Amino acid sequence: MANDKKSIELTIMGTPLPVKVDGNEDYIRGLADFVNQELQEIQNSNPHINRIQLMLIGCMNISEKYFQAQRDIAEMKDRLSQAKKEQSAINEHLANEKEQSNQLEQEKKEILKDLQACQRQLEEKNELLNQYREHLKQAKEESESNRKSILNLQNKLFESQIELSKSKDHQS
Prior knowledge:
The chain has 172 residues and is mainly alpha-helical. It has helices at residues 25-45, 51-171, and strands spanning 6-12, 15-21. Keywords: Cell cycle, Cell division.
């Protein structure tokens, strides 16, 4: 396997530094720019600092940023984990709500089906009631007709009795 590393030269605070890279050269140069920027900020705020102290303070500052980034990442992972737990709980709650909704929908369908059956029965009972009313009306009409016939017959009987009585009186 051939050695794919490429040798490049970086400059850190004016000091050339040969480096072998096997990845993105621009990325490595970006790292060197970041280090130079950090060291330049320290030197600008402490113009009389010697190079060793500058490099040590620069290492400490960069290490502090690294560790802060690690803490931030850990905190974000915790937040993400908590968010996933909350999302899981919400999804479970949503699934329960959906199941309840489906049950209520099924109950609604059954109630509507029962309602329709009740409406059909009511219509049948109303139709039967109307038939009874019609029958009752006819019975009343027949009863009234029969009552009138009975009254007529009673009147005729009474008249016949009167005539019979007159006829007996005339004969005696």
